[in-house]
Amino acid sequence: MRFIGALIGMFIMKSWLGLFIGYFVGLFIEKNFTFSSKNLSTSSGKFELNLLGLAAILIKSDGEVSQNELDYVRKYFVSVFGKNRANNIFKIFNENINKQKISSTEICRFFLLRSNYETRLQLIHFLFSVAKADGMVSNNELSKLKEFSNLFKISLADFDSIKAMFVDQIGSAYKILEVSSDATNEQIKSSYRRLVKIHHPDKIQNLGDSYKKIAKEKFQKIQDAYEKIKKERAIK
């Protein structure tokens, strides 16, 4: 785009000044408005487009598109970015990106380089919410979520903790707290305090209210799991 702009500037102004002006106008457009034909992470780098890209990959992982999952993503984006901006995001995505082959590896790398660990945990939690929107998280979706988590460099314990919040299984409360059912009371208390520090909503003050809402919901699930175990074991 920058070189096309340079040629256009040279043609219009018929001078070297036109070439330079055209070059920098093209450079500005290239950085702010155009998208790579390869993947999202080499585009203008907008957080929401990359997040939408991961959601799209996840929704398609079953081989069929769930309307409930699509509706969840749309409602979420409207709540975070407002209706007008959300509509614009979907328009850009559908017209410029969705028809291309989206690389989950490069999108995850985008987030890995630009967000902290706590934020990436919130993204995995959001994507689990998308997968659960149709009532269950399928095996294909679980595999894809595990792939995202690995690319985000999320620990297995943290991934299993979030998974236990969405997938019913024996000992879910213990999995949420990242301990085994035969852990001592002190080990349970220690793990609970560690998770409270990691998942506290204050850790993502730089994100919007909707992200904080998800963080609060996850934080509450950690507290509920701890209270359940405390009651079962009569922990003081």
CATH topology assignment of the largest domain: TerB-like
Number of strands: 0
Along the chain, the helix and strand elements come as HHHHHHHHHHHH
Overall spatial form: elongated
In total, the number of domains comes to: 3
Radius of gyration: 22 Å
Give the CATH level 1 class of the largest domain. Answer: Mainly Alpha
Strand content: under 5%
CATH architecture assignment of the largest domain = Orthogonal Bundle
From the N-terminal CA to the C-terminal CA, the straight-line distance is 66 Å
Total of DSSP H or I helical runs spanning 4+ residues: 12
Low-confidence stretches: 1-45
DSSP helix fraction: over 70%
| Mean pLDDT over the residues | 76
Biggest sheet character:
none
Structural class: mainly alpha
What would CATH call the homologous superfamily of the largest domain? TerB-like
Describe it.
This protein is mainly α. It folds into 3 domains: 1-34, no CATH class; 38-154, TerB-like (Orthogonal Bundle), CATH 1.10.3680; 156-236, DnaJ domain (Helix Hairpins). It is 71% helix and 0% strand. It has helices spanning 2-13, 16-32, 47-60, 67-81, 83-97, 104-114, 117-132, 139-151, 156-164, 172-176, 185-199, 209-233. The radius of gyration is 22 Å and the shape is elongated. The protein starts with a helix and ends with a helix. The model is unreliable at 1-45 (pLDDT under 50).
